[in-house]
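Thread: quick sanity check before group meeting

JM: Hey all, I'm pulling together slides for Thursday and realized we never actually wrote out the predicted structure for the chain we discussed last week. Dropping the sequence here so it's in one place. If anyone has concerns about the input, flag it before I start.
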Amino acid sequence: MVLNDLGKKINGALRKMTNLTIIDDEAVDAMLKEISRALLEADVNVKTVAQLRGNVKKSVNLDELAAGHNKRRMIQKAVFDELCKMLDSGRKPVVLKKGKPNVVMFVGLQGNGKTTSCVKYAYYHQRKGWKTCVVCADTFRAGAFDQLRQNCLKAKIPYYGSYSETDPVKIAMDGVERFRIEKYELIVVDTSGRHKQEAALFEEMEQMAAAIEPNDVVFVMDSSIGQAAHDHALAFRQRVDVGSVIITKLDGHAKGGGALSAVSATQSPITFIGVGEHIDEFEPFSTQNFVGRLLGLGDVSGLVTTIKEAGLHDNQKLYENITHGVFTLRDLYDQFQALTKLGPLGQLMSMMPGMSEMMPAGGEREGKAKIQKFLTMMDSMTDKELDDAKAQFSESRMYRIARGSGRSLQDVNELIHEHKRFAKLVGKLGKMKGMKTGNAKDLENMPQQLSRIMDPRMLQQLGGAGGVQNLMRQLAKNMPGEFGGK
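JM (edit): ok, ran it. Output follows.
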């Protein structure tokens, strides 16, 4: 995500300030100057930036801070709070009710990713257990129904539309009625867009809203227009009751920060952000979690939700193996398969405190390809090879696996090396008392033990042993019954 660049610049400013021996007004001013420059480069409004700068200065009055206060932490918290305030609309989004029909109408200008967002939105809720469908009421753009149909077929989402009917309001009414009868819980209606704001678009929107009476109206906005998003969001909200906003294409340019802050200023709550072309590159938006990830503080609650949805938290066999210091190739296979369900690797890394900067440019694509390559090679192994933790791989065995998977001998060697590396780490984990006993005293010592066996670079990114302890504390809070949680 290009917004990572903004996060790195803000983090850099905070890091410079925290590394100083003496933190005085001059140091705070220098930090705020860098942060302001980063926000302006992300197309955030000048007045908004000035307000943020002034508020941070007020809240970290160094003269009034009592002795013993951690100045660095206070300043970081002030920056965090002001960024949250800047992105918070102050209005709660519409809450849909599962178990009854919810009609959600999507509106927006043409080319902003509205049709794609409709399918992503339906797919997101489908994965959460909702019975979802999509209605194509866009009769203005040639090929709109074909695009929606193709996307819905890929995602296995039921859809409705017409090649012969030209009245979009009638199509919407017919589609909604049909899916209501079939007891669908979420009926997403895609409407016509235009290249610019015009009377015909707004009239059609108003007629459709009156006809289908949506539970929520979602305005879809392309983030590349930056702070101009303010006027667009306001214009649509004045004509229909926009209950929430989706910001798209946040992965492609540097103006995303401007768009996010501009839309929030219209008091329209942002509910989702699009961070890529793929159907799973679509994230629920929470101001605090988003700012936490932007500043490298992570989003542990989001990480836990993702882990639970992929079933990674409920692998009893793997847990038993780890407590005995055993890690088979089948364990590695299962974990790689689960990783593919977790969504984009960059998204996952940004949820872990301090890890957002460890994903290099292009690294996500390479990582995904490597996991797929490893899975293909393990598919060519026998059950004995996968289940025996002490399996030895002779050259003839490795040639057989290479031939069976269409990979090179070098690739097989790389897989065996990776497995040995993980197995060595698991062997060390199995020796920890907390893993075996689960009692409170042993669990308290686990962060220190973990920090001794971790990769030094990863440990540094997490903030040392204290950072590991904080991460485990947050995991315990979000996953009761595990990680020492109660």
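AS: nice. Residues 3-87 form a domain with the Four Helix Bundle (Hemerythrin (Met), subunit A) fold (CATH 1.20.120.140). Residues 434-440 have pLDDT under 50 and may be disordered.
JM: adding both to the slides.
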